[in-house]
What we know:
- The chain is of the alpha/beta class.
- Helix 1 (8-15) packs across helix 4.
- Strand 3 (73-77) and strand 4 (82-86) form a beta hairpin.
- It is 53% helix and 20% strand.
- It has helices spanning 8-15, 20-32, 42-49, 57-70, 89-99, and strands spanning 2-5, 36-41, 73-77, 82-86.
Amino acid sequence: MIRIYLDWNVFSGLKNPRTEDLRELKELIQENKNHLQFIYSDTHFEDLIKSYMPDNKYFNEDLNNLDYLTEGHRISHDGKNTKPYLHLPSDYFKSLKTVESY
């Protein structure tokens, strides 16, 4: 399994690819998804959460896209160590939402 860490702009761009490069990347991912493991991080969430509003459909699209691509593979870094976690971004968001009021 090949693990891949994409920049948030790439994750977001894959939702509605506007360039040929992103369209080709999306097609490559769809054809080879069973052999690829995409990872999201706390930094991705910081970028995503900036657009959170209850009625923002784009936020939900981004969250669903992140669920689909990462299948719950998350890494977190505490300053010293990097730790893997397995839970969907949408579930992670729900857990944060109960702790903090967004």
